[in-house]
Amino acid sequence: MATVVEAPPITPPAAEPKGGIWAWLTSVDHKKIGIMYGVAAMAFFILGGIEALFIRAQLAVPDGSVVNEDVYNQLFTMHGTTMVFLFVMPIAAAFGNYFMPILIGARDVAFPRLNALSFWIFLGGGIFISSAFFLGGLPDGAWVGYSPLATQNEVIRMDFWALGLLILGVASLLGAVNFITTIFTMRAPGMTLFRMPVFVWMQLVVAFLLAFSLPLVTVGLFQVVFDRNFGTLFFDAAGGGDPILWQHLFWLFGHPEVYILILPAMGIVSEVLPTFSRKPLFGYQFVVFAGAAIGFLGFGVWAHHMFTSGLGPVAETAFGIMTMTIAVPTGIKIFNWVGTMWGGNITFPTPMLFAVGFVAMFTIGGLSGVTHSIVPADTQQHDSYYVVAHFHYVLFGGAVFGIFSGIYYWFGKVFGRMLDERIGKWHFWLMFIGFNLTFAPQHILGLNGMPRRIATYGDGLGWNFWNLISTVGAFIIALSILVFLINAVRSYRRGEVAGPDPWDGRTLEWTTSSPPAEYNFAQEPTVEAIDDFWYKKYGEDEDHLPVRLDTNPLDPSALDTDEEFHVHLPSPSYYPILLAVGIVTVAYGFLWIPVGFAVMALGAGIMFWAIFGWALEDIDHPMGDDDHGGGHGEPAEPDEPETAEELVPAGAGTEVSE
After folding, report:
1. What whole-number distance in Å separates Cα of residue 506 and Cα of residue 133?
2. Structure confidence at residue 621 (pLDDT)
3. How far apart are CA 321 and CA 207, in angstroms?
4. CA spacing 20 to 30 A to 444: which of 24, 82, 193, 508?
5. Distances (CA, A) of 264 to 197, 244, 361, 448, 554
6. Beta-ladder partners of 441
7. Average pLDDT over residues 542-571
8. What DSSP string runs through 484-546?
9. Where do the domains of the chain lie?
10. How many other C-beta atoms can be found within 10 angstroms of the C-beta atom of residue 66?
């Protein structure tokens, strides 16, 4: 006989964090941090694009006079620096921060405050480098920082570059440690390594690449700073130093860096293609191992950037062979992506268009890259526009197309409203046409002898027509980005409302509400297969075609219910942003020693205040709040419910027991 008994008193939920900008400045929620990474990266993308438009306007016609040589050097140095370090790397971190924990069934990252610190240091480093525009001129020694251009100390421009990259390296290293720890220790029950989505695998490989490559370039950057400011001679040939040493240190980081930029896009495409082909990813294990092989082999090909530096035939042969070898796992991925689409029930919404565009453009870039394993060909092409075309097909045609595929795929999940498909297709086709008009002619220009890193060229060299076409293409790309921004703003305000699973997806993020609750999952998911969500939605008929099952595998928080779930989560803190401000303040003071000693002391004081405050912070009563935890959805009791039965609807007064 059923009896009604009084339920135990329910602890009222902790107060929500203060609203407005304060909630964002102090947030340690991985999703908010991911959004901030993405918005900041897109702002730097626009800045880098404006720099590129000035470059192309200068080169549109012979004897261009849009800018002078000094400004041109600043523009192309900052264009490369901005796009590589301030856009592609952080936008990949944005996707990783937001979706990696959800994809493995976790409620947060392993070190939430460290995650916030990583973002604020990145933003501070980006502002630090860009602020050089107002403080003596932008860096002007090329984004690769070759000596003696980077070590001439008449002006402080390259000090901004070297110190800024050191700051950004700290942010990346913190993020890498956080991602590795999260993936290895916080996966949901049943989420084995070989049930993880490919995107998570690629983030893991990238994290290891960062952990092992950043210390190398950090050593070189410190040597640049010391050469410039303290009279050391690490890279000064006249003083017994070796400028080639910098090239080794930079490219030991720089070539793994290429895969740090492209692997997240490969992971995104590996999620998008199966969804819109309505097939599992073809050869999942091969794609995973190919990504790991790319990461491993990426450390063995750096010197193919140095075939013109006189390494000698033995070294050149060895690195030429390694360059051919690394094309194999890349080719495996391309064949697996094509195999995923082959025979599938393909649809072509905007995310799929960008994913297919990624495969096509990256293949072209990869094929032109393999030609550089041939040492004589590389020697001829190295300082020409052929190389400019090659790496833009890899990093724009690859990484940027993959990034936009991910934006269109996950925008509804992040903001709760879908991007407009009609405008999205306009964006894709404008970008696709503009991209090929911009960079395909540069192959021809390079083979016709046009050197890179020149501010102008004379008439009658046969370069006029293709340079004009390339400039027209660059402005079409700019138009496509404007179309995207209009789409994003319009859709964010009044776009179609996204349900939990608008694309009929395959992975765990689609089991949650759009946007997900602050705790991600009300009930910790249990994973039984690769693409577990798909197989909980679909079975197979006798013809092996998918048949929808009469089940509802959504997480309880994604359902239309009045229940409120209160899960213990980390509390907000202002110490991460304070520590980042201290680090950047010290860097500014260093630029003007000895006058800057006072600024350095101020920055050091802020740093120590933040470090000790962080270490002594009461995580149950953060920021001096003695009344409540102040965290997003945090209860007074630390125990975290793990099953649906343990979750108590807010306001419940009775329970029924047998």
Report:
1. 46
2. 58
3. 26
4. 82
5. 12, 31, 16, 34, 27
6. none
7. 76
8. HHHHHHHHHHHPPBP-S-TT--SSGGGGS-SSPPTTS-SS-----STTHHHHHHEEE-TTS-E
9. 17-558, 577-616
10. 18
Residue 654 pairs in a beta bridge with 6
Per-residue model confidence as pLDDT tens digits over 410-437? 999 999 999 999 999 999 999 999 999 9
Distance CA 301, CA 206 (A): 17
Give the DSSP H or E segment for 596. Answer: none
| Distance in angstroms (rounded) separating the CA atoms of residues 111 and 570 | 9
Quick count: other Cβ atoms within 10 Å of Cβ 189? 11
CA-nearest of 312, 168, 339, 182 to 253 is 168
The amino acid at residue 316 is E
Q: Read off the DSSP letter of residue 365.
A: H
Mean pLDDT is lowest, of 235-239, 268-272, 313-317, 649-653, for: 649-653
Q: Where are the alpha helices (DSSP H) in 68-185?
A: 69-81, 89-103, 112-130, 157-185
Q: Which residues contact 514 (CB under 8 A, 6 or more apart)?
A: 412, 413, 414, 416, 498, 499, 500, 502
Q: Say which residue the tokens 């950037």 belong to.
A: 305
CA-wise closest residue to 479 among 547, 420, 403, 428: 428
Condensed to tens digits (0 to 9), the pLDDT of residues 433-486 reads 999 999 999 999 999 999 999 999 999 899 999 999 999 999 999 999 999 999
Identify the residue with better confidence: 167 or 543.
167
Q: Which pLDDT tens digit goes with each residue over 641-657?
A: 444 333 333 333 333 33
Round to whole Å and give the CA distance between 508 and 105: 7
pLDDT at res. 655:
35
DSSP string, 80-97: HHIIIIIIIHHHHHHHHH
The CATH number of the domain covering residues in 17-558: 1.20.210.10
First and final CA of the chain: distance in angstroms? Answer: 6
CB contact at 8 A, 515 and 413: yes
Q: What is the number of residues in the chain?
A: 658
Q: What residue type is 210 in one-letter code?
A: L
Residue found by looking up tokens 């595998």 in the block: 553
Q: For the whole model, what pTM was predicted?
A: 0.90
Q: Are 615 and 635 in contact (CB under 8 A)?
A: no
